[in-house]
Amino acid sequence: MNKRKYKWAAVIAAVIIIAGTAGYMNRMHIALWGFNTFISDDIEKQLEKSYKPFEGREVKPIIHEETIRPISLLLLGVDQRKNERGRSDTMIYTVIRPEDGAMLMVSIPRDAYVEIPGRSRADKITHAYAFGEAKLAVETVENLFGLPVDHYAAINFEGFRSIIDEMGGIALPIEKDLVNDDPNHEKFVVKAGQDLYNGQDALNYVRYREDAGGDLTRTGRHQVFISAMLDKASEVGQWTKIPQLVDIMGSNFTTDIVPNDLIDMAKTMLQSGHRTIYSHTLKGKGGISSDNGIWYYYLDKEDLDKAKAWIQNWLDASKSRAELPLPDQYKQNPIGAGMASEVVRP
Fold it and tell me: Quick check: pTM over 0.85?
């Protein structure tokens, strides 16, 4: 090989090395480019099957003046089996600030005693979905907080088993075996200390209900589960699986977010410096009603008012990330500083 050929070979080798290094250092950017080029259009078509806006309710656009504004989203985790309508096991008023890569998740215990629009008496908030599916659940939460819910996303936990298995399992912080063996409950055991948990174990983790913390710790597990799913889905190696995962999800996922907006919001979150989730579960006290003998969870008004204030501030696009108020457990650390929590993911 003459000197000219050696020179070109050296140039080609250098290009390969530089490209390889850049690909390693900027793999998220490469993945986003690949997503936009090869996957995005297919995903948008598949998501059309999940697009279910409410009749008579205006769908609010997410993108405003070329930026993605903060939005409020009611996240519903539905425990639905076979042909039954199901109930909303998880109800989380979520504020998403895509430009900041930050989310505030306020969980409402499923047995919270609330007014349900159109019903003659107050009831457990989980029954709102049973009475009127996602639309009534959204209206009930809007009535509770006195704040609008821009969008909803309803996810049937039953449909997650295949998705989690396809992703290769998810990491869950289970330090002690979860044994569900009450005669009135579904029976299962989730072994502690596994590196990754398959779909069935993850679903049982969500459904476990025999610990001393009751509804509050169950809600906390739901938050951890959702965060673990987001962590796994955001790994670069999962991007090529997205079309298959969306197809598996199928009818188990419905939302009124326009498919293209949903994709843009997800990409903006992933491109932000880091993704952080701040969570809070509404406080209260459980007790048996003297009227009907049914156990309810009575929300603490002061705590509810504090949650309303957090949400209002987070929805204010004029506020910077550093100005956003946080639930009490995070006040020792400024926002974005990498707090230690089950659900915060810096």
Answer: no
Strand order in the sheet with 276-281: 253-255, 151-156, 71-79, 87-97, 102-107, 276-281
φ and ψ of 278, to 5 deg: -110, 135
| Angle, helix 27-34 to helix 259-271, in steps of 10 degrees | 170
Beta bridge partners of 76: 91, 154
- Please report the DSSP string for 302-335 in residue order: HHHHHHHHHHHHHT-TTS-GGG----GGGTTS-T
- Rounded CA-CA distance 138/75 in Å is 9
Take residue 78 and report the two structure tokens written for it.
Answer: 């539905």
Pick from 69, 134, 97, 114: which is nearest to 278 by CA? 97
Residues 6+ apart with CB under 8 A from 55: none
**Of 37 and 114, the one with more pLDDT:** 114
H or E stretch at 204: helix 199-207
